[in-house]
Amino acid sequence: MLSERVELGANSYSIEFSSDPYSAISTFLQTYLGKKVLLIMDDHVESIYGAKLLLSLRSAGHAPLSFVFPSGENNKTIDQVMNLLDVALTGHWNRDDIFLVIGGGVVGDMGAFAASLCLRGVPLIHVPTTLLAQVDSSIGGKTGVNHAKGKNLIGTFYQPKQVIISPHFLKTLDEREIRTGLSEIIKYAMIDSPVLLSQLSEWLLAHPIQYYADYPDSFWESVIGQCVRIKARVVSADEKESGRRMILNYGHTFGHAIETATHYTRYTHGEAIAVGMNLAALIARGLGLCDDTLIQTQQSLLQLSGLPIQSDGVMLNTLLDIVKNDKKVKNGRLTLVLPEYIGKVRIVPDVDEDNIRKILQEVMP
Ligand SMILES: NC(=O)c1ccc[n+]([C@@H]2O[C@H](COP(=O)([O-])OP(=O)(O)OC[C@H]3O[C@@H](n4cnc5c(N)ncnc54)[C@H](O)[C@@H]3O)[C@@H](O)[C@H]2O)c1
Description:
The protein has helices at about 20-30, 45-60, 80-90, 105-115, 130-135, 175-190, 195-205, 215-235, 250-260, 270-285, 290-305, 315-325, 355-360; strands spanning about 5, 15, 35-40, 65-70, 100-105, 125-130, 145, 150-155, 160-165, 335-340, 345-350. It is of the alpha/beta class. It has 2 domains: about 5-170, Rossmann fold (3-Layer(aba) Sandwich), CATH 3.40.50.1970; about 180-360, Dehydroquinate synthase-like - alpha domain (Dehydroquinate synthase-like, alpha domain, Up-down Bundle), CATH 1.20.1090.10. The strands form 3 sheets. Strands 1-2-9-6-5-3-4 form a 7-stranded mixed β-sheet, with helices on both faces. The structure holds nicotinamide-adenine-dinucleotide. Nicotinamide-adenine-dinucleotide binds near residues 136 and 137. Nicotinamide-adenine-dinucleotide binds near residues 130, 136, 137 and 169.
């Protein structure tokens, strides 16, 4: 099985692929025998995997505590972080007791944020169970919760001790969650890998997304492995997003704004990012950075993946107002990640808002 490394000096860690995540977790936790383990899950993941995980941890000699909260983006809140910390601190947590976060990006972001705050930082292990979390959110150390003013506005950088990825978990995901993960995979292809883009297009043409449950583990390992490698490389070079790491935000400035405008209920994160990538590509074409072929290639791959390329009912003015409030906007000037060709994006500072308005007016009300 594959293994990747995020190289960050003393904060380096490995990303292990395993067909048997239960034994991979037990193996990693051997060094934590005698320490407390807090298993952090949402109620949906708990209902599918909770009993088996607890059993497996107990047979490996641990006496885990659990924190379970309602699933969904609107529960990625500071209030839930406080509830989580109550469980740990009431359980007399020590700085070498560990948080085991298992689930999608919501529980990953929130659990890791809590880990970074608890006693100024306790060890953390990520076991991502959605496709999106496996290719993206569990790697790189961005943690956080949402605020009424926008998504992920409260957070820290905090690296896990290990990430364990298993295609085992993908079998119970519904099609919409697979599609949302594909959106991030398309992002990696667009920013770094024409090879991944061709592989994905060919695969989806021959194996329509509705049959994802029959996709072999080897397909997932190959595709997830490529994404993880890209992310590990980018994060190792720029942990705190002072430069190059921004390319991972391709599609995210407008994607986040769409999520905020629709109150995190209409679109999944990946669906919003899909629309965001389409808008970014349209802006790039409007600014003369890319050609029509790129727009068409990206649109057809997004559509093959069952992803939207336009947002329903979001007005351009609303979108731009939210974008201007984004934490990445400096002095009112927009910095956007825009594609030049497949596998290459550019960080473009100082994009003029009026220019964007003019370009997007053609596709948005
Ligand atoms: N930290 C980062 O770098 C980063 C990067 C990308 C996205 N994110 C964040 O990730 C979040 C989105 O993550 P997500 O799409 O995983 O959403 P999610 O965590 O809400 O999971 C989606 C749904 O799938 C369910 N689920 C999870 N695993 C399952 C499984 N194996 N089988 C069946 N159901 C399962 C969950 O209970 C939930 O209902 C957003 O909050 C986004 O901001 C963070």
